[in-house]
Amino acid sequence: MRIALIDSGLGMLPTAGWLRHLRPDAHLDLLMDPAGMPWGSRPGGWIVDRVLSAARLAVERGADAVVVPCNTASVNALVPLRAELEPHRPVVGTVPAIKPAAATGEPFGVWATEATSASDYQADLVTLFAAPGQATAVPCPGLARAVESADGRAIGDAVAAGAARTPAGVRSVVLGCTHYPLVSDAIAAALPGVRLFDSAGAVAGQTLRRLGLDPRPDATPAGVSVLLSGEEGPLPAAARAYPVGAALAAGGPVDLALLPPAVREAAPVSHASISGAQPVPGR
User: Where are the coiled-coil regions (predicted)?
Assistant: First the structure.
């Protein structure tokens, strides 16, 4: 079994870590795009072309499923990607975990990039799942960029700024950028008592469900390949600075303890429940 993940950079690591934990015997192709990043500032058509090009390469390499662990890429490219690859190969996208946060009935914040915070996409999800006034958009300038470069000081500054923008009454926070779970411990420390919601575990579970696979964390590990703008190479040093990235680079299984701990502790995800915990676009 071969699963391809497509993203511009390190935002794929949490989902890749969950897949590696749940099914270490699935070969992972991590298709990153350092030459084209960041995708968030690119036109939609450019993103579609980039994602489709990566997906075609993944198919040439034998991908049985394609995962897009990126909100921007999912919004722009998921429909044409599914039109090209399905039904022969499942395509799984990503949306912020707004639905489960809204289901608590309590006020929550949505941490995201400035562009996503101001987008119709996020506003539509909030309107669809949350009660009026229940959700507050919390733009986090520079946080994704700091996580991408593993810059500890910049991460600390951006997290502190995000915490300062978060209303005092919120009971939970949705990590609305796939980079943010990599620093969920810092976010949890800045927001004591606030529950964090993230969709990486649910996306991994959805992928296994679409492939008809059950979790088998004790399976013998298969390989992990990294492609950087189409060329094979090592996992970037910044990725290896995070525990889940270091585990993926080592090629062994990913222990549950290495996955973003604050998210796991604040919003537990069981092997039995992750496949239905969070919807993905169109599925």
Answer: none
Could you state, in order of their start, the residue ranges of all structural domains in the chain? 2-93+200-257, 98-197
> Annotated active-site positions, please?
70, 177
For residues 55-94, one letter each, b for 16 or more C-beta atoms within 10 angstroms of the residue's C-beta and e for the rest, the string is: bebbbeeebbbbbbbbbbbbbbbbeebbeebeeebbbbbb
**6 — phi, psi (to 5°)?**
-120, 120
Q: What is the CATH number of domain 98-197?
A: 3.40.50.1860
Q: What is the pLDDT of residues 254-279, one digit of tens each?
A: 998 888 765 554 444 333 333 333 33
Q: What is the pTM of this model?
A: 0.89
Q: Residue 15 is encoded by which pair of tokens?
A: 């989902």
Which positions ≥6 away from 128 have C-beta within 8 Å? Answer: none
pLDDT, tens digit (0-9, with 9 covering 90-100), for 83-142: 999 999 999 999 899 999 999 999 999 999 888 888 888 999 999 999 999 999 999 999
